[in-house]
Specification:
Elements: H1 16-33, H2 35-46, H3 50-93, H4 97-106, H5 108-121, H6 124-131, H7 145-165
Helix pairs in contact: 5-7
Length: 167
């Protein structure tokens, strides 16, 4: 035996909240059929607030500044590279033997420092010091390539210090 509820007993059980919800759904359905109202509501919802506009403008300005700084840094790097290339070309090409002699005169202190250091590190006393370390001696009793390499590194370091702080 099934229980049936008469339709008359169902009425009157709708609360005010349910009624408002149904009315709002019906209004939404009706407004979607009218394009002008729906578009107005959407356009109002999509418009940013003045604070959002200000933030977007600040972000755009920050991006533009960063881009400008990158472009400026690249331009400086290109200018420095061009200047270095120009200096190298001037040294290589020269306009005759006078320029080569002028370069030798300008670099004479550096040249003399290298010559002095090479002579100093190739005297017999320095070789004898290195021969005292078995790692630097070959089977014939002479200095091996490791000793030569060590001497060249020491010469380079001393030249750097002299050039940086004394010349």
């Amino acid at each position: 035996m099934s229980q049936e509820t008469p339709i008359g007993n169902l009425g009157g059980g709708i609360s005010d909240e349910d009624s408002k919800l149904v009315d709002s759904i019906l209004n939404d359905i009706n407004s979607s059929s009218g394009p002008s109202q729906g578009q107005q509501q959407q356009s109002q919802q999509q418009q940013p607030s003045p604070e959002q506009i200000k933030m977007m403008q600040q972000q755009q300005m920050a991006r533009q500044q960063a881009l400008a700084q990158q472009q400026q840094a690249m331009a400086q790097q290109q200018a420095m590279a061009q200047q270095q290339a120009h200096q190298k070309m001037n040294m290589i090409q020269g306009s005759g033997s006078g320029d080569i002699m002028e370069n030798v005169k300008l670099e004479s202190k550096n040249i003399m420092a290298v010559v002095f250091l090479c002579i100093l590190f190739n005297i017999e006393q320095v070789d004898n010091i290195l021969k005292g370390v078995s790692m630097f001696v070959n089977e014939g009793g002479g200095l091996n390539m490791q000793a030569v390499f060590l001497k060249s590194i020491v010469i380079g370091l001393i030249f750097y210090v002299v050039k940086t702080y004394l010349l």
